[in-house]
Amino acid sequence: MTSAFQTSRYPLPYFPCSCQLSTPPPTRPSASFPSFYSRTRQSHARFMSIRANAATSTTPDARALQDGIAEFYDESSGLWEDIWGDHMHHGFYDPDSNASGSDHRSAQIRMIEEALRFTGISEDPAKRPKRIVDVGCGIGGSSRYLARKYGAKCQGITLSPVQAGRANVLAKAEGLADNVYFQVADALKQPFPDEQFDLVWSMESGEHMPEKSEFVNELVRVAAPGGSIIIVTWCHRDLGPNEESLQPWEKKLLNRICNAYYLPEWCSTADYVKLLQSLSLQDIKAADWSQHVAPFWPAVIRSALTWKGFISLLRSGLKTIKGALVMPLMIEGYQKGVIKFAIITCRKPE
């Protein structure tokens, strides 16, 4: 059987989102690339002091990593929204599903729902989360979805001024400006009081964190007693009992991906679980969802091969083009079992 991670020479057809909300949002404001994003980048200088204040360390390596992450998403977010919509994360698919026949935007919504189901978030109006933080929020797709689903107040943080600005524009357009707010902030030094949120949500941002222990400690700090923490992230495979590190060829593959996507050193799912256990958290669960995201990267590659995708890619900047060129390495990493797509969840003791 052909691997679900195998690339295709055929372009990705455009699928409108089929997810039906109980109260459809107003017509989304135009984001024709590169209109909003180019205007924002032209005024980028005024955000530099904000970004500098978001840094947790003055070391050159830490500052360079944060600047690289912010600039990468400043450049690439317009391309992503133009082709894929609000949600800047993998979709969740049935194993062995045919990617060419999948509704990829609906799969991204399903990823959110599956993460909530796996964690055991209650649908009971009396128990569902009322205060949510979205750590690494992108352009706010998850925050707006969760705010609408639960009637909750959501705060989103990102290193990218472009993403924060666009997320707030979309929240206002969808009538959610009173419930959802986005700002530039560092996930390792979040601008929130202790024990603030019933649900701490991190959808594919953990891979960018240089200090996983600091990252996890911050997630726990801002979680309210009894609150849930959801981490969905890229990991490397768990090490065997007689292994001290990955194989040299595995490290080389991951380093090439890191250089393009501004990622620090990777960790395993087991590393996350150990961190949560060391903090005496409850109901710790983890799962490997690699097979459920298998169609995603081939679909992203095919979208880039459309005329619309190609032109948008050329407009987006060198960092985005560099990222696009290593997308086949993500597929290789999944195929060879080096990269794992993991969900790790827990609950803070009351």
Largest sheet: 7 strands, mixed
What is the overall silhouette? globular
Q: Give the H and E element order.
A: HHHHEHEHEEHEHHEHHHHE
Radius of gyration in whole Å, from Cα?
Answer: 19 Å
Strand order of the largest sheet: 3-2-1-4-5-7-6
Characterise the protein shown here.
- The chain is of the alpha/beta class.
- 43% of the residues lie in helices and 15% in strands.
- The chain has 13 helices and 7 strands.
- The protein has a 7-stranded mixed beta sheet with strand order 3-2-1-4-5-7-6, with helices on both faces.
- Helix 7 (212-222) links the parallel strand 4 and strand 5.
- Helix 1 (35-42) packs across helix 6 (161-173) and helix 3 packs antiparallel against helix 11.
- The longest helix has 25 residues, at 60-84.
- It is globular.
Question: What attributes characterize this protein structure?
Answer:
350 residues, alpha/beta, 13 helices, 15% strand
Secondary-structure blueprint:
Elements: H1 35-42, H2 48-54, H3 60-84, H4 104-119, E1 131-135, H5 141-150, E2 153-158, H6 161-173, E3 180-184, E4 197-203, H7 212-222, E5 223-236, H8 248-261, H9 269-278, E6 282-288, H10 296-304, H11 307-316, H12 318-325, H13 327-335, E7 339-347
Parallel strand pairs: 1-2, 1-4, 2-3, 4-5
Antiparallel strand pairs: 5-7, 6-7
Helix pairs in contact: 1-6, 3-11, 8-13, 10-13
